[in-house]
Amino acid sequence: MSGEARQPVTGMLLPAADDEDAAAFWRWCAAGELRVQQCAACGALRFPPRPLCPHCRAFDHDWARLSGRGTVWSWVVAHPPLLAAYAEQAPYNVVVVTSDDDPAIRFVGNIVESPGDRLDHVDPHRIAIGDPVEVVFEPVEDGLALPRWRRRTT
Q: What is the pLDDT of residues 82-99, one digit of tens each?
């Protein structure tokens, strides 16, 4: 993550960072780490965050750090009409990324070249299913950073 100070993004839909189950995920993102819940009973990783394990129904969990590496599983190009904050950046890519640590873990985001890039900065016609990516974190307001993805060469 870049050490550059950025102005907060305005008008964008932002996650409910105070959600009881997801708050820790957003704190880790703000700290520059990609973590998901890991069941304390069976060890299964799970995302999105939720109160109980879908595999064994246990409530106790820890937060496992992921490598931040993944693969483009699917993608689309968003076009107007959109919310005003996004319309000026359309068309832009929206990707679904599977985690290399556990392909059952999937994240939705955007491919950028670096944090802070406009969403339309990467030509969506250059994106392909199977592209290797790595997480980068884009600060959007105090204490909140969104995971985005950039291509990796290895």
A: 777 788 888 999 999 999
